[in-house]
Specification:
The protein is α+β, with helices and mostly antiparallel strands and 293 residues long. It has two domains: 37-134, no CATH class; 140-290, Ribonuclease H-like superfamily/Ribonuclease H (Nucleotidyltransferase, domain 5). It is built from eleven helices and nine strands. It has helices at 2-10, 39-48, 67-70, 78-91, 99-105, 114-130, 189-215, 229-236, 238-247, 255-263, 279-282; strands at 21-22, 25-30, 33-37, 134-138, 145-152, 163-170, 173-181, 222-226, 266-270. The protein has a five-stranded mixed β-sheet with strand order 7-6-5-8-9. A four-stranded antiparallel β-sheet has the order 1-2-3-4. A hairpin with a 2-residue loop joins strand 1 (21-22) and strand 2 (25-30). Helix 2 packs across helix 6 and helix 7 crosses helix 8 (229-236). The longest helix is centred in the last third of the chain and has 27 residues, at 189-215. The radius of gyration is 21 Å and the shape is flat.
Length: 293
């Protein structure tokens, strides 16, 4: 309340109470809980593309879908395809489970093919059954930042690069999620997991500095959960690290070891694959019930 009073003394403003709707986002607030979703916006997308009565599906994209196969199909009308993908891009704000599929669909904005269009309609069928989904933030003691990482080794058939996926949670829900191809080719799953853990560590350090500036208090080390034991041992053991980095990795991935031995701001811990929220960012064959929604 004091913040509102301070702003009112400097600016002409009107207190309209709690926020319920803003730029397509629905905000539901109650004691100790905040729920943000884009259910209305998702239904508008379904009506706009005449899919409001379609049969719902459990996954955002078929598990056997490959971009390389889709590029050889007949080209379809690009304008409507771009409109659909653009609408889905805004929906990712509260739906991290759509991160990977929107990333794939956006690669065909110039010449979309029939298979890309079918994949986009698959996403709409998935939205038909998951439109109420969103992000739920619950009040917790202190400011706790934790991350989850996962990698799909050699997923890209054209250049054999692996796919990195990660989620950073602040308290009870995600504040950052990403899915991208790795810049170098990993020769093993452990290397691919090490690369994504390095990326997550860098982002965790960056976010820690922002939170320290906002709350003006020292934070506990961020725990990053990984489902690969080799990656964890590699990041903690100097001998393994030297043997590994001399063989394959770029120098920038050495940042992860620096965080361990100098700053100690992140810790890598093991988690079971079934308890891995970042799986939903990568694994297209897994229903979205695992996502932190």
């Amino acid at each position: 309340m004091s913040c509102k009073e301070d702003l009112a003394r400097k600016f002409e403003m009107k207190d309209m109470g709690l926020m319920h709707y803003f730029l397509g986002m629905e905000v539901w607030q109650k004691d100790g809980e905040l729920f943000v979703s884009q259910g209305k916006y998702a239904n508008e997308i379904l009506r706009r593309f005449h899919m409001e009565k379609c049969k719902p599906l459990q996954t955002p994209l078929a598990g056997n879908w490959r971009k390389e196969d889709a590029t050889s199909e007949e080209v379809v009308e690009a304008t409507v395809y771009r409109q659909l993908v653009g609408s889905l891009m805004y929906l990712v704000n509260t739906r991290p489970d759509l991160c990977y599929v929107v990333n794939q669909l956006s690669r065909a904005m110039v010449q979309p093919t029939k298979m890309f269009w079918k994949a986009a309609k698959h996403v709409l069928r998935y939205l038909r059954g998951t439109s109420p989904y969103g992000l739920c933030y619950r009040q917790t003691e202190g400011v706790k930042l934790q991350g989850f990482t996962d990698a799909d080794w050699a997923r890209s058939a054209s250049d054999r690069k692996s796919t990195s996926g990660g989620i950073l949670n602040l308290g009870s829900a995600a504040v950052s999620s990403y899915n991208r191809n790795q810049k170098s080719v990993a020769l093993s799953l452990a290397e691919a997991e090490y690369m994504v853990a390095s990326q997550a560590a860098c982002e965790a350090i960056w976010m820690q500095r922002i939170l320290v500036g906002l709350f003006d208090q020292r934070m506990d080390p961020t725990v990053i959960y990984c489902d690969n034991q080799s990656c964890i041992k590699l990041s903690k053991n100097l001998v393994f690290h030297l043997e590994f980095s001399c063989k394959v990795l770029l120098a920038r991935h050495d940042k992860l070891l620096t965080f361990y031995h100098d700053v100690v701001q992140v810790h890598i811990c093991f988690t079971l694959c079934e308890a891995q929220p970042s799986e939903v960012v990568i694994d297209l064959g897994v229903p979205s019930t695992r996502c932190l929604l």
